[in-house]
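Slide 14.
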Amino acid sequence: MTSLDWLSEQVRQPIDAAKPAIVRALANHLIAVCLIGPAAKRGRSMRGAHVELLIVAELLDATSLRALAKGLAQPLRAGLQIRTVTGAELAGSVDVHALEIATWRDHHLLLAGRDPFQGLEIAAKDLRHEIERALRTLTQRLRNRMLWCLATEQVRLDALLREGMELLTMIGHHTLALAGQQPPRDEAALLGRLLAWAGSSVAPVAPTVMALRSRLEATRAPDDPLAELAALATTTEVVCARVDALRV
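Slide 15: predicted structure.
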């Protein structure tokens, strides 16, 4: 277990309140309580991010949910996000939710119970399929937003850019692993490695994408948000084409 000492007290309070409440409510049905998302990564900025707990249990019936709701009322009001899944659902979803489960598996902190991902096998073909689907969806979202911005001359884009960068970085971890590379733990290095793997087609926009990541991390105002959006959209499109060609 971990003390979560890199998180601020304000962020830790709802987690500290929720954990014993979950353990009491689910008792012997509890498999695990895990911290997931940005809060589970030491040194990550929490700006614009929610704190998420994943609850894995043998049983999550109406009685269990009522007991959980009673204990989690205050943490939920404080902004804590809760994801619930049964052990059977987790094991049965490794094909249709391969990317999400792989991310939980690789980037979680166990707060209570036992590791719910131990022995869980995700097929490479399912993960590649989910990565491609996520990249195609993101590419279309970025392109559609570019059209809207050009038509309306409204360029408040940081929320979308931050979400897109978060998704691209997360996908990059799994993509490099599928390609037989060891993903760097440092996220800036990981993004750089992904851009290099994507090849010469992203070389013209790679400096803009790397600078975008630094700007978002430092919460600086943008100089040219449309150029950042275009660079990110180009990158996701090229990475998607490389993923589509992967044979796993």
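Speaker note: The beta strands are 30-36, 52-57, 81-86, 109-113.
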